[in-house]
Design a protein that fits this description.
35% helix, globular, 110 residues, Alpha-Beta Plaits
Length: 110
Amino acid sequence: MPKPLLPTLRERNRYMVFEIVSDSKFKRDEVLKSVWGSVSRLLGEFETGKTSLWLTEWDEKTQKGILKANHKSIDKVRAAIALIKEIDKKPVIFHVLGISGTIKKAKAKF
């Protein structure tokens, strides 16, 4: 069994809490597809791979979610999701509620 990485060698992540303002309700797959598409269009595939981007939480009722990204690329991801204007031809607004260093604080604070 391999040894776990030392804390100094681990990648530092940030958690972005966001909500979607829209008349329609969206599923996790639709949101993830639109976020990945926007980030890859803005940054390209190589830079998108460096972001370690993932949708960790998604609540269909409140339309709120948490995106995980590398600490160096969180501003680039935030800019990319600001460019999303529609999902499946339905107008949307991505509103970032805040960014946190841990998922526990992100859930508690926002």
